[in-house]
Amino acid sequence: MFEAVLRGATDPEIEGVEVVRRPALTVAPVDVLEADGYLLGTPANLGYMSGALKHAFDTVYYQALDTTRGRPFGLYLHGNEGTEGAVRAIDAITTGLGWVKAAEHVVVSGKPSKADLEQCWELGGTIAAQLMV
Prior knowledge:
alpha/beta, 5 helices, globular, FMN_Rdtase-like_dom, Flavodoxin family protein, Flavoprotein-like_sf
């Protein structure tokens, strides 16, 4: 799913957008402050987002709170069941940050299908296209 989102975000038709990738455990406040938009990806573990993504939010939340308001984000999430809690938690955090849901979330249960991967590609492309200068 990550690779499909990345291919969409880096499509050659999208110009003037630099895509920077960071593993959730290495995200620092400066990464979030310097970005114009966000593509968030996580597995749903036990009905919640990954501990790594939660750690990233915990690390950057207060530094990003007022500065990043209004920035677009997209979410792709994979789980086997119980993804609702992860989506609900991420929606609550991004709402608190004032980020704008710029595309429908891609939530996949079980093995991702070709259609799921196409939705991931569209998600990446949609968010990146909104940031074109």
